[in-house]
Amino acid sequence: MIAHLRGQILTKTPNSVVVECGGVGYELAISVATYSEIGGEGKEVRLHVHTHVREDALALYGFAELQEKRLFEKLLTISGIGPKLAITVLSGISAERLVGAIRAGDHATLTRIPGIGKKTAERVVLELKDKLDDMAGVVPDDAPRSLGRLEDDVVSALVNLGYARSLAMKAVEAAHKVGVDYEIGFEAGSGKGSNEFEILFRAAMAAVR
Predict the structure, then answer these.
(1) CB proximity list for 22: less than 8 A, separation 6 or greater
(2) Are 33 and 90 spatial neighbours (Cβ–Cβ below 8 Å)?
(3) Distance of alpha carbon 157 from alpha carbon 154, whole angstroms
(4) 63, 95 in Cβ contact below 8 A?
(5) Any idea of the CA torsion for 204, 105, 128, 76, to the nearest 10 degrees?
(6) What pLDDT digit, counting tens, does each position of 148-186 carry?
(7) pTM for this one?
């Protein structure tokens, strides 16, 4: 079972990354948070890995942070949540905000995540609320303001998650209407722009709901 990979990024999309290790390319599904945190093509990356084995396939899921991997695995213990939905959940909300929402029993925040309905949100809170004591969390506030000039990438990411392109484009437009500011929170030369895609994507995810 693969638990960790270190290698060179060959290709990278908002939903997956191919990492070359010892001459072998490993494709891993990733969340938007991991996409934003790792470097670009040609850069070295270290990923915590969850190996999901089925009768007909072996799938790898990569995480830049160990807490995100652990939360992913806890989500898999919930009836009705498989790896694809779990990675979608972690793309729709940061690990810290998700932990905070579960601890607070905040069903409203959870049901804003694509794929999570009222009953699933209730199960997540019921089954995980007392199992996250060792994880850092924050109480969710209002949806974050969007940042970045990456609309095309965000539309593509939403389409890859199963949304129609027309709906994805409307979601990005809606994110702008509720208050997009590309410059807030970024200092010149600070290098913080790597989070632009993640913030814009999550604002669009909220809009598409």
Answers:
(1) 7
(2) yes
(3) 5
(4) no
(5) -30
(6) 346 777 877 887 787 776 677 778 877 766 654 433 333
(7) 0.67
